[in-house]
């Protein structure tokens, strides 16, 4: 964190658990995907073309955000980007909002930002694109916004809901009916139902137990499983999604991995999960069993950069990217059909200082014609296994991928 021209150093564990105290447009039709990286100590967002796999900086390579950007999220239609700025001045805690231009570069909306709570940390956008949620780590709340025409944010009524002691990671089920977030101090996962207009209300029970220091949450593409990284415990808690969206621990309830379990992501086809280990600078890689349990791959982990934290998978499932907060870089990998990762060339690309989060634009909702499935085009839609699946989807499901919400 930078304050008054001085760089303030703190342990990654303290930063993680404390949450690092402190334009109008239509959906883009282009050779996307594009990737965006929130640079905490540069107060900027790096922007890349990810269409070829290896990241290529856009022009300009960065754009200013607010102070201390901690997270970045892309709207489901691929037209907007939102950034959580956790300033050390309470009145300056904001969510910056951008439109995505045709070449992938970000353009501030009007207004360029909206107020958030104390230390906004993580962002999640509902799959229908109509609601956005932000965890406020040092306030113990979630800010909830409606997404208006032009994709600008307006606080709902009420503007916040209670969210434990120190909420961090947040995730939403594919159909948009349930929200889960990690409470690092409470050592629980809070669970909410999404009501009329996107407003959150606690489920019964309101929380389930995790391991020590839960940080991030991921939901599988089929909506049947939820995974939570436990930073202090060095484990991942794994749950099945039961009746009404309530979480039920799988057997076993946790899997062990390296020190500093930070972020978790599930591949678009649902076959694999990847977990960053911030203290070891690695990515642990898993296959997912039929019931959603995590099973280690061989090798169990691959090398990333120092401070490996945020991780995303490209919408076609072929590439994985990891933000290395201590390395001012993003590690980039090719993902094989069976799941293991192989470093790309180059293995890393440079970012601003302290890249703390990464997001990538989604695939189109689904192919509109059978021709879009040919010549490898099926890979653009993320969850199809081959051209035949894609063609069948056009004929029987209106172009929706197999794991799309609503089916």
Question: Any chance you could write out the topology, listing elements then pairs?
Answer:
Blueprint: E1 2-3, E2 6-7, H1 12-18, E3 34-39, E4 44-49, E5 56-64, E6 69-74, E7 80-85, E8 94-100, E9 106-115, E10 120-125, E11 131-136, E12 141-147, E13 153-162, E14 167-172, E15 178-183, E16 188-194, E17 200-209, E18 214-219, E19 225-230, E20 235-241, E21 247-256, E22 261-266, E23 272-277, E24 282-288, E25 294-303, E26 308-313, E27 319-324, E28 329-335, E29 341-350, E30 355-360, H2 387-396
Antiparallel strand pairs: 1-2, 3-4, 3-30, 4-5, 6-7, 7-8, 8-9, 10-11, 11-12, 12-13, 14-15, 15-16, 16-17, 18-19, 19-20, 20-21, 22-23, 23-24, 24-25, 26-27, 27-28, 28-29
Write structural notes for this entry.
This protein is mainly beta and 407 residues long. The protein has two domains: 2-362, YVTN repeat-like/Quinoprotein amine dehydrogenase (Methylamine Dehydrogenase, Chain H, 7 Propeller), CATH 2.130.10; 371-407, no CATH class. Helix content is 4%, strand content 50%. A hairpin with a 5-residue loop joins β6 and β7 (80-85). The chain is globular and about 50 Å long. The model is unreliable at 1-31 and 398-407 (pLDDT under 50).
In short:
The chain is mainly β. It contains two helices and 30 strands.
Fraction in helix: under 10%
Which class best fits the helix and strand makeup?
Answer: mainly beta
For CATH, the homologous superfamily of the largest domain is named as YVTN repeat-like/Quinoprotein amine dehydrogenase
Q: Low-confidence parts, pLDDT < 50 over ≥5 residues?
A: 1-31, 398-407
Total individual domains = 2
**What amount of the residues lies in strands?**
over 45%
Q: What is the class of the largest domain in the CATH system?
A: Mainly Beta
Q: Could you give the order of strands across the largest sheet? A: 5-4-3-30
How far apart are the termini? 44 Å
CATH topology of the largest domain: Methylamine Dehydrogenase, Chain H
Radius of gyration computed on alpha carbons: 19 Å
What is the averaged pLDDT score?
88
